[in-house]
Every structure is written in structure tokens, then in C-alpha cells.
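In response to the reviewer comment on reproducibility (Comment 2.3), we provide here a single inverse folding case reported in full, input and output, so that an independent group could reproduce the run without further information from us. The C-alpha cells appear first.
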């Protein structure tokens, strides 16, 4: 009887957290959803056990963040890494003959909102460090400084990928496997996928790449989101 009551208790708690995730207070909603997913991982459950996916709509939302092969190309890699780890797919669009790519995500609305929050935070972390790199190396020519900045950003994106892989391994211990839902993949059909590849890998600063990699591995967006609430 006690096991049944405990199961009922945590299921009820998860239901309440998922309901709170519908709050108009965006910080409160995101914190509640993250806590609900933590409990679901611990008890080998998923949102499929609590929600009717037929009533959830796939959204395509832009982030307001841009990148190009010349300016912050690492943002493209970072968007792919974060999207895949928040049950979303990253995409980028641009006008005819436009070099700038506008970054967005496709997914269920609550997933996309969290994904964008994490993505913006990650980009801010890199841009803050890039600002310091530029200040520290202001005596050098712009081409060299850009090489340093892009090397740091690329290393950070790869470090975040490693951090998420470790997190995925830990989640799998609880039986929770996060994948991009079929509905989201279906929503991406017909979207032209451009092969975006900059030359940043050909002109890498190993020192800045390694610094970015270390900081990317230490990236933990959950604490930031919960603290904001």
C-alpha cells in the first residue's frame, strides 16, 4: 500500500508541476518544467505518461540571434547541439543573397521556449568572453582577433556537446532517453537544410579552442533558469 501511495504522490506532484509549467510567469513555468522532468527521470516516466500529444502543437520560432560565415559562425554549431538536447531541431533562414543566417528552433512550444532560453544564455556566455578576448588583444589586427574569438566559440560548442553527452548517460541510468519527437521531425519536412560550413576550423587557435572547450563542458543552464525563477 505504501508503494502505491508513494507512486500516487510523485505522479500527483509531477502533474502539478506540469500544470505550473503553463503559468504566465515564464521563469516560474520553466523552473517547474525542469523539476518535473527531473522527477520523471528518477521514476522512469516521460511527458507521454501525463499529456496528450495530439493536443500539442509544433511551433517554429526564431530566436532573434544571427550568424554568418564571417561573424560568429560557431553559433550554428551551438544551435544544433542545444536543439538536439532539448527535443527540438535548429534551423536558420536568410533572404536571397543574404549572408546573415537567422537562427530558430522547431519543436513543441514548451520545449522550444526552454531551448531558446538555454541557447540565448549559452550565446551570451560566449559573447561575454569574446568581448574580453577582443579587449586583451586589441593591439593585433582584426583578422587574428577574429580567429581567436571564433576558435573560443567553436571550442565552447564542442564542450557543451560533451557536457550533454555526459548528462544523457546519467539520464539513461534512470531510463529517460530524450529524443526529438516524431511530430517535430515531421514538422521539419520540407524545410530546406543548408550545408553551412565556415573556414574557422582551418584557422584555429588551439589555446582559445581549449579554453572554450573547458568552459563549454562546465556549462550548466539549469541552475541559471531555476535561480531566475
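Designed residues, in position order:
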Amino acid at each position: 500500500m505504501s508503494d502505491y501511495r508513494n507512486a500516487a504522490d510523485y505522479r500527483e506532484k509531477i502533474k502539478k508541476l506540469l500544470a505550473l509549467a503553463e503559468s504566465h510567469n515564464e521563469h516560474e513555468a520553466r523552473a517547474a518544467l525542469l523539476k518535473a522532468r527531473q522527477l520523471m527521470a528518477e521514476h522512469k516516466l516521460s511527458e507521454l505518461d501525463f499529456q496528450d500529444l495530439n493536443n500539442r502543437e509544433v511551433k517554429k520560432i526564431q530566436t532573434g540571434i544571427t550568424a554568418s560565415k564571417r561573424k560568429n559562425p560557431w553559433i550554428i554549431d551551438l544551435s544544433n547541439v542545444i536543439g538536439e538536447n532539448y527535443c527540438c531541431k535548429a534551423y536558420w533562414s536568410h533572404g536571397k543573397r543574404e549572408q546573415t543566417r537567422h537562427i530558430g528552433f522547431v519543436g513543441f512550444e514548451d520545449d522550444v521556449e526552454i531551448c531558446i532560453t538555454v541557447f540565448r544564455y549559452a550565446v551570451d556566455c560566449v559573447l561575454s568572453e569574446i568581448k574580453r578576448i577582443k579587449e586583451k588583444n586589441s593591439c593585433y589586427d582584426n583578422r587574428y582577433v577574429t580567429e581567436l574569438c571564433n576558435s573560443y566559440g567553436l571550442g565552447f560548442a564542442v564542450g557543451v556537446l560533451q557536457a550533454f553527452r555526459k548528462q544523457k548517460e546519467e539520464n539513461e541510468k534512470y531510463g529517460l532517453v530524450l529524443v526529438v519527437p516524431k511530430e517535430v521531425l515531421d514538422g521539419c519536412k520540407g524545410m530546406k537544410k543548408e550545408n553551412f560550413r565556415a573556414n574557422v576550423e582551418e584557422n584555429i587557435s588551439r589555446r582559445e579552442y581549449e579554453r572554450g572547450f573547458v568552459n563549454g563542458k562546465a556549462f550548466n543552464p539549469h541552475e541559471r533558469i531555476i535561480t531566475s525563477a
